[in-house]
Amino acid sequence: MRGRRGVGRTAGSPRAEAADRVGVWDWAIREDRLSADEVVAELFGLDPEEAGAGIPFERWMRTVHPDDRGQMGVHLAAASGPFRSEYRTCSRDGSRRRVQVQGRFYHDAQGRPVRSSGTVLDITERPGDPGRALDEAADHCMAARRAAARIDAPLVRRLLDMALIEIGRALAQQEGPRH
């Protein structure tokens, strides 16, 4: 994948800025080599040359936020046909990005996955989506609430419930009145 620089670059076009944040990847499963273009390398905190040449899948997984690796595992366990997922990545500079991954698994005659390929879209800052931060806060509170339910921490659960109620109110205000 060496030399690819993202999809849809046209200098000066209104779509160029957003298109610069779309990349492509390909995973040769049997060879355990995942290769990606420069955009994907940047989003996942990988060296562009190494990503272009291909890296082991385990190394790729280490660039996914630890809390989101299980979600990726669900798609890998299914390993059938097309998939779409959102998760966070950890860049080399320590920043976190939110990406949407779309791809497809390809199988051999025995039905075993042999290859997967697709695109990555940077959705960290979606224009025109002011509720995104509240949605993210709600997701984190729900995860914390589930964790708190497994321990004896009634005050923590109550505080998280209060936070979720306030997030819900803020989301409702953004949506406006319902008719």
From TrEMBL:
Give the EC number(s) listed in the UniProt record: 2.7.13.3
Q: What does the record give as the reaction this protein catalyses?
A: ATP + protein L-histidine = ADP + protein N-phospho-L-histidine
Under the heading InterPro entries, the entry gives: PAC, PAS, PAS-like_dom_sf, PAS_fold_3, Sensor_kinase/Photoreceptor
Keyword annotations of the record: Kinase, Phosphoprotein, Transferase
Q: What class of enzyme is it?
A: transferase
Which Pfam families would you find in this protein's record? PAS_3
Locate the PAS fold-3 domain: which residues? 34-120
PANTHER family hit by this protein = PAC DOMAIN-CONTAINING PROTEIN, PHYTOCHROME-LIKE PROTEIN CPH1
Q: What is this protein called?
A: histidine kinase
Question: What organism does this protein naturally occur in?
Answer: Methylobacterium isbiliense
Instruction: Read off the lineage from the record.
Output: Bacteria, Pseudomonadati, Pseudomonadota, Alphaproteobacteria, Hyphomicrobiales
